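Q: Hi! First time doing this. I have a protein sequence and I read that you can turn it into a structure. Is that right? Here it is:
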Amino acid sequence: MAELGGHTDKGFLGLFKKKVPEASPVAVPVREGLLHDPSAMIPLLVTVLEEKYPVRVFLNNGSSPYYSHFEREWTEDAVGRIVQSQTHLEKGQYLLLAAMDPPIGNLKIRSATAIRLEFASEHHLLECDVALKQITPERKICLSFPGILRQKPQKRSMIRLPVERNAQVGLAVILPSGTVVDAVVRDICTGGMAFSTRRTVSFVAPTTRPSGVVMPSGIVVDAKVRGTGSDGMSLSAPGTTPHPSRMGRMALSITYPKGEVTVESVLLGSITQDGEYQSRSRFLVSNHHIARQINALVAYIVPDRKSRFSPNPRSKNTPSDKKFSVKHIRKLKNKASNTF
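A: Yes, that's right. Below is the predicted 3D structure, encoded as structure tokens:
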């Protein structure tokens, strides 16, 4: 019988004692439900701020979101320096949002009677209702601190569509180090995708970071450089694949016959199967333009699948398996420098 209010379990006749883990200093919710205590809400909100996760804003119970993210505020420290501070959030005083996209939302929120925020933490989808306090001189949106934070498990709220190998959908995974890895899309929805990467990297962009470095974003750079090509790009040794750790950030560059989408993403999980990394990711949609691009991509997958994805008997290799050209790799490397 466990001791009431203690941290041990005596087990049967003092044998087979169960070791109860010590409480974590940061509250990590494990169930769906409501959070009322600010001490439980603040660590989650601080994580969203520090990781700059996107925040979706819904006005007047509408279905179309506006996109933003939490902001720090400029304040004067003890010696008179102007610094950025997140004390307002750590003390549960109020929330600060950056200007929203599309810009019309910054005007509509002034007269909105209902404001709902949606965002994600490591474990949950979170939402709360807030009220407008003011628009700051820096054009930041000051909102009331939520009284209740609703949390839901990170389950798929949208059906992911399987992507056929002959669907002409290509994918390159771009790590903050500049590494570009060829990948194959397995399934997709407007919220994220599943993909697989081979255990051999096609190209590794130049980097001064040595092998095995854990970056602040959570990316583990474990490529072993074998040599340098004439174009200045380093080639990876066979059998090694740089890949992000769980909740690590990356950019996904997706190409298909009607366009191209580059979206920042976070890795939810990855396993090794049949010599490949099978990974799941969540899109971090930061503005309306990217949301429209993703919707167009998913719409391309949905209709008339049989006629569009009919196999070509003359083709030995499917388009999804083709390698990206050196010119395209350079283009992706430039996007990586702008994304991170």
